[in-house]
Amino acid sequence: MVPREAQPYQGRRAGLITRSVAGVIDAVVVVVVVLAGYVGVNGLMFLLDPRGFQFSEASPVPGVATASLVAVVYLCVAWSMTGRTYGCHVMGLRVVGRRGERVRPLVALLRAVFYVVFPLGLLLCAGGRRHASVQDLVLRTSVIYDW
């Protein structure tokens, strides 16, 4: 059921602000997952050797690489299965293909890699009627309002 206030926007392309807020929410989800993994690994190490336990060092390069990998997997799975991540769900958005269909897994994977490697591509959707990011232009996808 679409809220009355949202009905005029249903199916229209989403703009920069809405997509950015969804992206921030998704980034928080990724950070929480990575931190939970870090705590889980250290908890397992503690259970295996409580006397000799020390927290593993969290260095930046492996941390960023792990977070990037988690983000790509999270985005790819969400976009290919339902067309929306948790951030998209909260903001009432859906990623669709050029004909309005759910994106295929390969397109979702390429879009996720593009999204993580080149996040500034989102800024392009601020201009123009199409509200298309670089990722949308290259892969022929769209982000629409879909409650």
TrEMBL record:
Name of a matching Pfam family: RDD
Membrane topology, record value: Multi-pass membrane protein
Domain RDD: 14-121
Main location: membrane
Cell membrane as UniProt keyword: yes
Name of the protein this chain belongs to: RDD family protein
Localisation per UniProt entry: Cell membrane
Keyword terms, alphabetized: Cell membrane, Membrane, Transmembrane, Transmembrane helix
